[in-house]
# Entry
Amino acid sequence: MVHVEVNVAGRITTAPTDICASKDIKGVMVDYILQATYSDIDLDEDPVLVPSCRHLMALSSMDGHMGMSDYYELSPSSFVDALKPLPEAFSTKNVKKCPMCRGPLRDINRYNRIVRQSQIEEATKKIISWANQQYLPLEQRLYEEEKRLQQSADTGEIVPQQPSGARITESPSSVNDVRLEKSPAHQIDRIRKFPALKARYKPCTTLGVEITKLLKQVSEAEQPFGRIFDIIQNIRRRRGITTDLVVDRNVLNTRNRMLTSLLSIRCKLAVLSDFFVLRQQRQELTNQHNWIKAELHLDFAKNRQACESLVTEAIVRDQPMHEVEARIFFCALVNT
# Structure
């Protein structure tokens, strides 16, 4: 039996000719738009593709199914003349597959640009779903911690009840001043130098570590589009290519990172706010806790800078809720 081999975008497709094909093959529908069978088409003008699932499909029909005209400038003979800009990110509902069996089309190089984009978008959607599942429990825990700190401050219970019943006491050495400067993390570490406050804020600091871990996991660099961009940049550097390559920020999910960044600020602000409330409302405990009467030296420039950066980004990305929350945190730091 004689077969014809057609090279379609780097893949050799082998199919029986219309002369040697069996009667069953000639009756196979290969163009679902024109309802044409294998025997109806001219293989020289419209070759038949045979993906790994072995279903026959005319090139023109498969191009229509895959939306080739949305991605390429095509000649009248279906050759690719030029690239088109990629469609808007996440505009495709499903990964394009074989219309007959829903099998993958990864082995046909002609459609790699279409298939790969859909696969990357699907992977990004899974990351977004996973990030939401991780974020919500952390937000709930922070809400409960804020509530606990407020209630214990109202009752004067600075140190949480210890399981063993032992009391936590301060160091007898006097504290003349408390400097809350540099980074927010450094400020929290300074507050936790005092044993009573270390015990009081242990749940918050543990939560803060988990929030920081999530923040790294949801960063743009860890997303599929971000990783591919970094790989391309590394290859370009090794080859000495110096022209700028700019990633379309619309394909990157920034919402989860912004949410987690705000949660991190809120967690640190909960500790700082509670610390100031205790100093103002519990002066009668000065003899037990010498940090209450110590002189304060405050520098929240980096805290406010983090809020301002989120405000700017929220405006650029049209996220009014994130903008308002970042502005509220900024005002809380200004009034501290």
Summary: The beta strands are 3-8, 11-16, 29-31, 36-37, 48-49, 57-58, 72-74, 80-83, 177-180, 295-298. Residues 1-14, 162-173 have pLDDT under 50 and may be disordered. The first strand starts at residue 3 and ends at 8.
